[in-house]
């Protein structure tokens, strides 16, 4: 199983749990797809887009469970990032973990090499 990751404000994720699916954060809705990162990309994504933010969650998702709606497309520096064209079904979620910011504003990630 290949895991991909979504960094999400906790309140937005709780709304998704209530709704039974995640339609995306405001940036996702604007761009027309849900942004994800690979394990290698997630820490840089956190620095670039979430530095200093509290109350974030790291959502681990089974990429294969998303089927053809998931596409890897060039983004930052030409790197291929996973983009989901459609809602994220909660059945594809493998874990939800807090993503705390350290004193320097950099988020403290769990070991993503175990996924």
UniProtKB/TrEMBL annotation:
Listed name of the protein: Dihydroorotate dehydrogenase
Top-level taxon of the source organism: Bacteria
Source organism per UniProt: Methylobacterium tarhaniae
Entry-linked InterPro entries: DUF952
Pfam families: DUF952 (PF06108)
């Amino acid at each position: 199983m290949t895991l991909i990751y979504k960094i999400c404000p906790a309140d937005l994720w709780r709304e998704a749990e209530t709704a039974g699916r995640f339609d995306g954060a405001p940036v996702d809705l604007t761009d027309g797809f849900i942004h994800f990162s690979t394990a290698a990309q997630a820490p840089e994504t956190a620095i670039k887009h979430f530095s200093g933010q509290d109350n974030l969650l790291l959502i681990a998702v089974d990429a294969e469970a998303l089927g053809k709606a998931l596409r890897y497309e060039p983004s930052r520096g030409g790197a291929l990032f996973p983009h989901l064209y459609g809602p994220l079904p909660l059945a594809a979620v493998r874990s939800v973990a807090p993503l705390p910011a350290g004193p320097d504003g950099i988020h403290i990630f769990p070991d993503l090499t175990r996924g």
